[in-house]
Amino acid sequence: MLNRMRKRINQQPNSETLNLSGCLAKTWKQTDGQVFAGRDVFSHCLIVGQVAQTLINQMPDWLRDAFFPQGSALIAACHDDGKVSPTFQRKIYINLSQTPSDIWSVIQGASLDENKLWGGHAGVSQVTLDEIKVGKYIAEIAGQHHGWSPNIGARQANSEVFGGDAWLGKRVELIEQLKVAINQEFPKVENELQAKLIAGLTTVADWIGSGNLFDNPAEDWQPKVQQAIEQAGFISPKIKLKLSFEQIFKFSPRAAQSQLFELANQPGIYILEAPMGLGKTEAALYAAYSLLEQNKATGIYFALPTQLTSEKIHERVTTFLQAILEDDSLHGIPILLHGQAWLKQQMGEDAAPGGEWFSQGKKGILAPFAVGTIDQALMAVLHVKHGFVRTFGLAGKVVILDEVHTYDAYTGTVMDELVDALRQLHCTVIILSATLTQERRQTLLKTQVVENRYPLISGLSNSKLTEIPVDSNEQKSVAIKIEPETDNALEEALIRAEQGQQVLWIENTVAQAQEIFLTLSARAAGLGVDTGLLHSRFTQAHRQHNEQKWVTLFGRTGWSQRRTMGRILVGTQVLEQSLDIDADFLVTRLAPTDMLLQRFGRLWRHENPQRHPQAKQQAWLLAPKLEEAIENPEKAFGATAKVYAPYVLCRTLEVWQNRTQVTLSHDIRPLIEATYQSRNEQGVLASYLQDIEKKRRTLHQLALQGMSAIGLAKPDEAVTTRYSEQEMVEVLLFKQIEINQTYQNQKGTWFTFSEGESEFYPHNGRAFGHQKWRELAAKLQMNLVKVAQQNAPKPVLQSSLSGLKDYIYLGHPEQSDAKVRVALIRDDDQLTAVDGNTAINDKNELSYNDWMGYQSRKKQ
């Protein structure tokens, strides 16, 4: 094949091309703003191939042998072959401070206008590898290394827009040189899953190989490969051996905890169903430690329910990691998806400051130890940009799926596809839940289950199912009152708080929580009652501060302060998830049964000697009458019907409407089964059920789109992974922006953040060094708030935010509007556009402060 191609190329009339040594892959930006020629294509491809091979060599045998055959590094190396083309070379040379005239004369006629039509250089790489018949998957891997499959159309490798046969010959020559340099031939890629993993390896190796260590083309790159990999966080952690549960967690395990980690001693799927407060997290973490100790896992991904989940779980996992890692382990300070630790991951391309994958929520999934969301893991099985990078990041790990509810699966999340993919990726999956139906458990395990007792441990390993009922002598009775009037609940909360009780009030939307908080705080001030608010619409900096205060006051460490005054803490779903808080009295808006049971788990959580003597273990459920809800759920449930499926809310209300008491854990299984048991519906309930089924089908279709799906993959924010989720955007908040400033001989912008702290951002991010560049970028991440698109400021042009482009991802260059929205906080808390224009949203007034968070109110 190659000989025939060479003969054909040699028969063509001479066309001017660049020598391979003159074909650039990278520019090299200086601190003074000048742009020099960086690595040539051959050198860069060789670096990426060597990084890929080193990553493969570090993998355990069982993972490497399963997915990464000899030749995988060659696939990674060939990713940028398409840069040997006239369009790309014109694009890169035109950005240099000086371009040699002999080179410019060859490439000046190339048009850049059509480059985007075929996905740029990645598309050229794909058609070239297709031309030399290396196999469908290999060509696609190269084509999508920037996150999506390019739309090649009918174009061929020797199309004129790609430089014809002459430039094709240069690209083939490059591939031949890489084969010799790496000493590998192309392998056979067996299936789509293997292709996704090698695609993930290729992109990650490209990011690492594009880091600043390799900027200077005159320096020898080979000694820097291992250093670059370690700086990116890809190094095997050093695990302490033979630690007992007591040595790690400082207390003895309960029976259920011991039974889980004794069963989960080899890769498989394990489910622990147990009530809130049983210590499921510690049981799962110790099982993960045991697998790491035996070299049966490569790391841990702890997946929490949603972005709302508390920062406190990060602290628990950090303490665990510090106990199991050797002091000289590079992960002694764990790289988690919070705080500043993720800044240690140094990579180039999309993972550098200003890149789409610089944010901690995305990049952290590649770290050996990460705490993130289930949504980030779900992206590994959806057709989203860089979904295959997440697939690569999860391979071989212990993946702990925390607080998995029946509701999420019932309404359409692609959890089943995720669990299937994780098992194929040689992961161990540990699912923690207080609220699964038997049908749901059976679906996750993909096998017939028998046992229906509760609590229960189920495990499937080597096709063998084990079910272990767990003794549970601990029962807690909670008195229930269904209350249709919010005003009555407000009065009751204030009465109890004035007595000195600690009251928890949980709403289903941020706006509802803010409204209740305003009402309560205004009245509580004169009663000597403290009030607080927790939700997801604070900046990360403010949320961490609020959580620290209120979790301490409502937790074990706050017992000594408990009797000093009454308190009311208002919040959203963040209060039901992963928080170790203990309330005397609970008020909650109606939510699906799963979530209600989670919320009840925050009542009288501990044996507390400081509990108020008048406190009663009681929860008030704010809910309408069932008939009103069925007739008009939007009116009866209000904003809650936009968060949770009306059908499930009606089924939940039907189960709870006549209840005056619930016993935990005795009633958990019957309540869940009654809520979700399949049945034929008539009338309006049938139409509500059809809405759920339609959403399910949409999500599953997205999951079924494989690597061959053509065109731009959706960005994360445009993909909903659960029912009723809205498209979200990020808003960057400042107090003041001063543009066109000079500091330390650098042109740039002064940004003042909501706390009043100011930082200078030079237009050239590298001006003050790479460490400072990452720190400045991270500070912006701490001042982002994610909100529904309709509640965000209007989009602005990317060009108007040019001072930020080196620090935060503004969007694809071909999109005119910036992906991130920007607003200024006035002294009266109102948000304005950067130019001071108050018409920042056509329908809503927007504001922000550190005690209410981000607010959106309809204009009068």
Q: Termini distance?
A: 72 Å
Low-confidence stretches: 1-14, 332-344
- Classification by helices and strands: alpha/beta
Proportion of residues in helical segments: 25-40%
Output the strand order for the largest sheet: 5-4-6-7-3-8-9
Average pLDDT metric:
86
Helix segment tally: 33
Supply Rg. Answer: 29 Å
* Percent of residues in β-strands: 15-25%
List the helices and strands and how they pair.
Blueprint: H1 2-11, E1 27-29, E2 35-37, H2 41-58, H3 61-67, H4 72-77, H5 86-93, H6 101-107, H7 120-131, H8 136-143, H9 164-182, H10 192-209, H11 225-231, H12 245-249, H13 255-263, E3 269-273, H14 280-293, E4 300-304, H15 312-324, H16 360-363, E5 369-373, H17 374-378, H18 387-394, E6 398-401, H19 406-410, H20 415-424, E7 428-433, H21 438-445, E8 456-461, E9 464-469, E10 476-483, H22 486-499, E11 502-506, H23 510-524, E12 530-534, H24 540-554, H25 559-562, E13 567-571, E14 585-589, H26 593-600, E15 618-622, H27 626-631, H28 633-637, H29 640-643, H30 646-656, E16 661-664, H31 668-676, H32 683-704, E17 728-734, E18 736-743, E19 746-752, E20 758-762, H33 770-781, E21 784-788, E22 821-825, E23 831-832, E24 844-849, E25 853-858
Parallel strand pairs: 3-7, 4-5, 4-6, 6-7, 10-15, 11-13, 11-14, 12-13, 14-15, 17-22
Antiparallel strand pairs: 1-2, 3-8, 8-9, 10-16, 17-21, 18-19, 19-20, 22-23, 24-25
